[in-house]
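Lecture notes, unit on protein representations.

Consider one protein chain, 369 amino acids long.
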Amino acid sequence: MQSEVAPDFHRWISEELFDHVPLAICVVDQQFRIVEANDRFAELYGEWRGRFCYDVYKGRNEKCARCGAAKTFRDGKTRQREEQGVDRQGNATDYVVNIVPVVRDNGEVPYVIEMSRNIAELKTLQRQKLEAERLAAVGQTVAGLAHGIKNLIMGLEGGMYVVNSGLRSGNEERLLQGWKMLEEDIGRISSFVKEFLEFAKGRQPRVQTIQPNDMARKVVASFRERAARAGVELRLDLQELGEASMDEEGLHACLTNLVLNAIDACVMSTNETHHVVLSTRERDGVLTFEVSDNGCGMDYDIKQRVFTNFFSTKASGKGTGLGLLTTRKIVQEHGGKVSFESAEGEGSVFRLEFPRDSLPRPQREETAA
């Protein structure tokens, strides 16, 4: 025999549960004004009566550009978003919100219910974990740093020997040869130290609204001539993309690392023709940058070590092994991920994926908040 729910429990569900669930709940109308909210919502975000959701959640004076509620009003679909906003004290906070439509019989959506959960502590732990991993990698890299410097010093000693022998014999050609060796090795030391410092210092992203395709065009324009001199065709394959909140300098560094690695892989290949393609696309709200090449590719052992600190497949003194580590760090700071595919003798594809919902806010919005 099926038991019946007691009337007083029905009353508790309808009258009390709204304020007892451990979620911040509010009801938003089509004008994006909050018309009802529970106690937990008021605890987190403060006074809500007569205010718009974008004002309460984020301290904004206009509707969010990527408003999840607006999409639910249009299509009547339930969705989940990860957002950044401000709490009642004006402090930045992170939260996950589930947006549920209230649908009438005629299909109209007069209200949406937003149920949010504060994940600021989780985000802090994630950032601390990333920082700990970075510092651990720096510590492990110091041991390898000595080996790299030793190789570069040996190169300098070799160049000095050639210069001195040219001076002693009055051989101008040998003197110029030694000087060129010194210039190359000093350039390698400079690059080596800059990459290590960039990785070690933990640079803060400077987020602004940019056009992703513009950055792809700049990178290709910067290295097209260099690629051509190496016998590599460097080209673009761009899908039309909307603006995105990203660290322009960080994204440039990521794409530069991948493009230069791809060019070097082609130079090491025995294929008759070589090409590197930088492509962009967006699907299901995920921005994707892809750098593909038909270079030497990687075998199983190398693929397992790609993101190992200080590991490089380049000739001694020509690679620091920090480029891909730096790239992964920057992509993770954007809420994205790095993946790759490679086959020995056939080439590689490196992919940077950035879900729009996880991108950081532009700094002007952070300041305004």
